[in-house]
């Protein structure tokens, strides 16, 4: 298994001082910046777009930016995010007219590509595209808001997707997003996740390093 990655969701960051806050969380030991894009159409909330991604790059953020598109339609915003410095772009298959085409568009834009499955979205969306995926993101809450509780049935789904990835032989990250905390991250890792999005658990605390260190300590028990 590859090293575990911790990806703070900036949905819970301080938007009034975003560059500083993202810098702080990276200096505290985070691996990747998780960038939640919501359109008030596919999901009932409205957040940030390519200009903010570009602003983070201009501020000097060099870590990978993992753009989670909760938008419909998907395709027309992809080149803008690639130009703005996105490293990974993931999207929800039911929000795309042509999933294979959208994956190719992301790759042609120079980014890594991934599919996101909501808690009730079936795994069959992964059929026939495993060879084009760098990331599979399983939502462990319904998308739209931070601070929700982890849906326990995600654990079984993670185990199923872990097996699919291992059986496929492809190099695909298994990401989980929603309700990830210090007290459940080990169980989530044991079920097969290797990339952990956590928003409120990190940003709603005064000491980002302390939380990330605690998460890594929990994960070490799985790596051992
Ligand atoms: O995509 C998301 C919501 O749609 C967020 O990334 C996710 O909910 C993370 O927030 P928290 O860790 O607070 O649950």
Describe the structure in your own words.
By secondary structure, this protein is an alpha/beta fold. The chain has a single domain, classed as TIM Barrel (Alpha-Beta Barrel), CATH 3.20.20.70. Helices cover 34% and strands 18% of the residues. It contains eight helices and eight strands, in the order E-H-E-H-E-H-E-H-E-E-H-E-H-E-H-H. It has helices at 18-27, 50-59, 78-83, 99-108, 154-168, 185-190, 200-203, 208-223; strands spanning 5-8, 33-38, 65-70, 88-91, 112-117, 135-139, 173-177, 195-198. The chain has an eight-stranded parallel β-sheet with strand order 1-8-7-6-5-4-3-2. Helix 5 links the parallel strand 6 (135-139) and strand 7 (173-177). The radius of gyration is 16 Å and the shape is globular. The N and C termini lie close together (12 Å). The model has no long low-confidence stretch (mean pLDDT 97). Ribulose-5-phosphate binds at residues 9, 11-12, 34, 36, 68, 141, 143-148, 177-180, 197-201. Residues 9, 11-12, 34, 36, 68, 141, 143-148, 177-180, 197-201 line the site of ribulose-5-phosphate.
Quick structural gist:
With 224 residues, this protein is an alpha/beta fold. The protein has a single domain, classed as Aldolase class I (TIM Barrel, Alpha-Beta Barrel), CATH 3.20.20.
How would you summarize the topology of this molecule?
Blueprint: E1 5-8, H1 18-27, E2 33-38, H2 50-59, E3 65-70, H3 78-83, E4 88-91, H4 99-108, E5 112-117, E6 135-139, H5 154-168, E7 173-177, H6 185-190, E8 195-198, H7 200-203, H8 208-223
Parallel strand pairs: 1-8, 2-3, 3-4, 4-5, 5-6, 6-7, 7-8
Keywords: Carbohydrate metabolism, Isomerase, Metal-binding
Catalytic activity: D-ribulose 5-phosphate = D-xylulose 5-phosphate
Cofactor: a divalent metal cation; Fe(2+); Mn(2+); Co(2+)
């Amino acid at each position: 298994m590859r090293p575990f990655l911790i990806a703070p969701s900036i949905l819970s960051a301080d938007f009034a001082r975003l560059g500083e806050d993202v810098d702080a969380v990276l200096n505290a030991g985070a691996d990747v910046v998780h960038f939640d894009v919501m359109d008030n159409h596919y999901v009932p909330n409205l957040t940030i777009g390519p200009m903010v991604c570009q602003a983070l790059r201009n501020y000097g953020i060099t870590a990978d930016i993992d753009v989670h598109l909760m938008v419909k339609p998907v395709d027309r915003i992809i080149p803008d995010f690639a130009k703005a410095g996105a490293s990974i772009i993931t999207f929800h298959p039911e929000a795309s007219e042509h999933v294979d085409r959208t994956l190719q568009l992301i790759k042609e834009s120079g980014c890594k590509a991934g599919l996101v499955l909501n808690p009730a979205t079936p795994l069959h969306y992964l059929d026939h595209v495993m060879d084009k995926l760098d990331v599979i993101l399983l939502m462990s809450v319904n998308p739209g808001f931070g601070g929700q509780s982890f849906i326990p049935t995600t654990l079984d789904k993670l185990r199923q997707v872990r097996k699919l990835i291992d059986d496929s032989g492809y190099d695909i990250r298994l990401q989980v997003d929603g309700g990830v905390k210090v007290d459940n991250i080990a169980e989530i890792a044991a079920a097969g996740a290797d990339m952990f999005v956590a928003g409120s658990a990190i940003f709603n605390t005064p000491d980002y390093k302390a939380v990330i260190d605690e998460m890594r300590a929990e994960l070490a028990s799985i790596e051992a």
